[in-house]
User: Fold this.
Amino acid sequence: MRYPTLDHLETLTDDVGVIQHAIYDVPNRSTGYCTDDVSRALMVAIAASRDRELHDTAMHLTEIYIAFLFDAQLRDGRFHNFMGYDRRWLDIVGTQDSIGRALWSIGFGMRFAPRESWRQVCSLIFERAFQVVSTLEAPRSRAYALIGMAHAFDARRRADPTLEHAIRCEAEALVQAFEQNSTPDWRWFEGIMTYDNARLPEAILRAGALLEEERFVDIGLDALKFYESVTVEERIFVPIGNQGWYRRGGERARYGQQPLEAAAMVDAALVAGDISRDPRYEGLAELAHGWYFGRNSLGAIMVDGGGCRDGIDDHGVSTNMGAESTLAYLSSAISLAVPRAERLRVAR
Assistant:
């Protein structure tokens, strides 16, 4: 699989960051910027810099995104999330998810940024952010931070006992959530499936691989298998929709499908395959990626010119191609474009 074009990401990006939303394929400047999307964009740009054709563009974008995150960080280590187009921060402090995603991207940058100076800046940001990890309580926020810490741990050649302890603590918190909420017919971390679901088993799997903790790996594979049973129907990935979600014992929402769900499934499946050495997970990743190219419940093509449409609702497909959707597609495509032997992964 080839690397995707970054044309639409370039269109959405200016000298400050990436514009959140679009009208069709035109940036909607009134929506400004957010740390959530810039964090996603940083990882995409760093990963894309490995490709010779995309290298120069990706390097330029990477510098913009690192500068945004450096500015977004508060003195206490947390982050702003929303910035207006006038470059003014619109919040006092961002959500737990935005803090977790920022830490995830910065850990990724510590490990993979193609310049030493960028890795050092990411390390400075990470050190400040690390002190607030213990304040994160939401499962997904914890999962994002856990993935970031796993990357940072590898960047430090697995020689940081304090960071190793934090990884274990956050993984144990997710394990506890799984044990408290799972039943024989509901193998999940909460009593409801909502958004970015596959990041939860992915985080546990990454922690298990790093710490050589078989219990974590078993729970991660168990949860991913259950999630797969819920979302794969006749070889089509049908993610949980945001028009009602999926509460245990209830009906799962089929619409309000978001592109980030396919990207999360791709990453979780690839990590599961790397750890278990089971080749079927590669097929699961490709099946989830196919959601972008018509292998979805409406048979709709979601990708156009490097951008991705914002979702599938009961009335059809969104015509807009915003940052979150586009970055989800780019992340998914890049993950599958990297040869297995060279894939950016924690599992050895």
